[in-house]
Write a structure and sequence with these properties.
GO terms for molecular function: hydrolase activity. Keywords: Amino-acid biosynthesis, Branched-chain amino acid biosynthesis, Hydrolase. The protein has about 250 residues and is α/β, with parallel strands linked by helices. It has a single domain (about 10-250), classed as Rossmann fold, CATH 3.40.50. The protein is built from 13 helices and 5 strands. A 5-stranded parallel β-sheet has the order 2-3-1-4-5, with helices on both faces. The longest helix is centred in the last third of the chain and has 18 residues, at about 230-250.
Length: about 250
């Protein structure tokens, strides 16, 4: 499918934070016959500019471009024959102020959110050192307002809890908001790793590699995990919650 007005391929930027079913959502779109995907293409740029020590840092810096302009060139490159949708999984905290954003103007931008308490409880299992910026919610809200100001309305916001509770209904609403047809193939996928997965997959993707579809909601378990966290970590979630609630006002 191409944009009927321009005849060009459809490029979707899904803006998310970590531990937010973002990889499962990428799996869902990749299971469409008309779609290709990319996994966190600005990760190496982010690591190089910040100097942060993330799991797999050296491998990420080796495997991905470290120039944001080079990444953008890839994101705007022609799609393979037979594919008309390019789904891009982006982490909001990767989008440093030095990274230009003009390339997003022709994209269909959407925002994936999750209760920050649940994000945090999951995040620390792979990387115990965490700050509010690591969750990306502040940057996500900035990007949301940037897109809303540009298009004159709120772009679609989808909550991971809604996807887990009712995958078909949530994905149908998302596809409608993105002006693409819903495809039932998005509801399940083969188990295992994918060539499209980032090289950081061994540290983060064990759960999604075992999956064949969206897991059901397990809020009680996540909240129990959150209650066990140190007060310093709980304060991060407290600071993030108003941002999550503001974004939630625009949930589709």
């Amino acid at each position: 499918m191409t944009d009927q007005m321009t005849g060009e391929s459809i490029r979707i930027a899904m803006w998310s934070g970590p531990r937010n079913i973002s990889t499962a959502m990428m799996r869902s779109f990749e299971n469409r016959a008309d779609t290709i995907v990319v996994d966190e293409p600005f990760y190496a740029v982010y690591l190089k500019e910040t100097g942060l020590d993330h799991p797999g840092r050296d491998l990420i810096l080796k495997e991905q471009p470290t120039s944001w302009q080079a990444v953008v060139d890839d994101l705007l490159a022609p799609l393979p024959a037979g594919r008309s949708i390019f789904y891009q999984k982006h982490m909001c905290h990767h989008m440093l102020p030095s990274i230009g954003l003009d390339w997003t103007k022709g994209f269909r931008n959407a925002f994936l959110v999750r209760d920050p308490r649940h994000m945090l409880a999951s995040y620390i299992k792979s990387r115990p050192d965490v700050t509010l910026k690591d969750l990306g919610l502040e940057r996500q809200l900035e990007l949301f307002h940037m897109v809303a100001d540009r298009i004159g309305k709120a772009p679609p916001v989808i909550d991971s809890a809604d996807v887990q509770a009712e995958p078909k209904g949530a994905l149908m609403r998302l596809c409608e908001a993105l002006d693409i047809p819903f495809d039932a193939a998005m509801l399940s996928w083969p188990k295992g790793p994918r060539d499209s997965d980032g090289v950081w997959a061994p540290w983060w993707y064990a759960g999604v590699e075992r999956s064949t579809g969206f897991a059901g909601r397990n809020d009680a378990s996540r909240e129990a995990e959150f209650e066990k966290l140190d007060d310093s970590l709980k304060r991060i979630a407290d600071a993030a919650m108003p941002i999550y609630e503001e974004m939630g006002r625009y949930r589709i």
